[in-house]
Amino acid sequence: xxxxxxxxxxxxxxxxxxxxxxxxxxxxxxxxxxxxxxxxxxxxxxxxxxxxxxxxxxxxxxxxxxxxxxxxxxxxxxxxxxxxxxxxxxxxxxxxxxxxxxxxxxxxxxxxxxxxxxxxxxxxxxxxxxxxxxxxxxxxxxxxxxxxxxxxxxxxx
Length: 157
Prior knowledge:
Number of strands: 0
Strand content: under 5%
């Protein structure tokens, strides 16, 4: 639990410093590197929030560590609130399926592809993938969740 708490606190510090990420570089290689950096933060937020939830931390305890929720929050603060809403709103979601969901959404967003507006739109399909394939790191569950995201965004791959 200590590692997950430290990771969550580390991500909180990124919330404060991520304003620099607001400007998108124009160089394609730099864009790819920035996307990988941003998506890594999304992945870490997903993993640590599920781990802390499963260890008994409440949503309120976690939210107290964040800046006050509001429309002017930067991307990371907004992400952290979304993650908390997702993992506490759907307590049956396990770590790996949620990690896959966050990863896929982030990479699609970085590629400027359509994404579902919120986990709630695809939660039933993601949970069905979790029920069918478990929460092990298998290509089948990754493909299933990717398909759910594509279906939820109303677009083609």
